[in-house]
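Appendix B. Chain record.
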Amino acid sequence: MGPAKEFLASLAKISKLNFQIWDIQEGLVFSADPDQYQAPPLQELEDFSEEIINQAKFHHAQSNGGEGLFGVPIKDGDLVVGSLVAFGSNSHGHPLTQKAAEDNSSSAAEMEKFLSQVATLLEDRLTTQQEMEEMAIELTDNFEQLCFYARIAGRVRTITFSGETLKDLVVDLMDTMRTDIAFARLPERPEYNSSMSTPAASKMISDQDAFIDALIDSIPGNSPSLEDNYFIVNDSRTTPGYEDMAPAPYRFLAVKMRHKGNFYGWMGLVSFNLDEIFRRSELRLLNSMAEQVAVVITNSDLYRDLERFVINMVKSLVYAIEAKDDYTRGHSERVCRYSLLMADRMGLNEERKKVLQWSSILHDSGKIGIPESILNKPWRLEDEEYQIVKNHPIKGHTILEPLEQLASSLPGMLHHHERYDGKGYPGGLKGKEIPLEARIIAVADTFDAMTSNRAYRPGKSPAEALEEMEKVAGSQLDPELVEVFKEVFREDLEEECRSH
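Structure tokens predicted for this chain:
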């Protein structure tokens, strides 16, 4: 009311009247109190203000000192929230008394009209201020929600989806919406289920999963709002089926996660603060998030189908390669297994292990173009034939390069014949210049090649192969990875013995 008070203070100096604003709860909140006039006793003014508020209309009276008191109610809509009181001298500088006003009825009418106009200005100011405050709150919330949407949109719009991704989203939802519980429930994908709650809500609801399931199960199938993919409870005490689910009354909002006719589950919020309601903007945001999640799950399913297709295609390619060489059947799968055992020992993350899996199982894919007469030759290869064999990493890279899903796995496949001392092929890379996946595959490939029977020689025993690998550690193979392989091989051998 700052500007309104400044207006009344200026008006008091001009009119020689003192203006006061009385609040229905706080009492006197403003008095212009011009120096030219002494105010009546405060209690008398308070009683006069209460009379105006109770009657909710213009009122005038005579104070104990004979001064005239005039006042009108101040309203917020239809509700009286206070009063505007005036007292002082008239426009000629003489005391404005009740008797004078009664002798001149037009004076009282003019005061009523005048004060009503001032009160209207105050009411308009009050309404405008409230609207501005509400708008500011709404804009603040919308800005926070917009920031939240922008923050998580990039995270949600990924090809693959996980329970961890959804958990992070639920945490952000609860913080942004300022609710007590946020959740996501996918009946046919329980691994994605996630919920988060404030400490107070966790203490109040001991079995949160059962509470959330009960909320969802109680959603009436004939609710009209379900046509718009949501259901809302603004007060559990007045909503059938939701009265006794929690120790305290609550609000509940749930939206469907669905895309192109596929229903995946519900995303929802619970709040025990009934002083607020779920606003339309919050419904739109939650609905948008649910739609985003549903789209990503759909895309993730499509991606997995595509990935399975690629895997099956690659397996067919590997089988076709190994079918050309009777002595190397199962070689790629064994190299893959050894490589992943090493990766586990080294603590590589799941993404890195997946790259290694593809690299190892495809490391010999370029042999598809090598004649069987060379692959199965029972004696030493000619220089020209050996050069054809040496080209198989480049040939495999060329064959698989168009597949985007395998892009990160191609370096490991391409460089698995590099040597640690830089004398390998096709790039002559040295030491740590060689991709880690390629160095791991080189160790696993060397062991399996030495322990497998070939057309031109019988296979070595594991002990003999490990001894040979120790000799070439630091020249042909990464010495650190040779030690890792020895550890995992011994553990694997012990595990195999125990299983038998």
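Further analysis of this model is presented in Appendix C.
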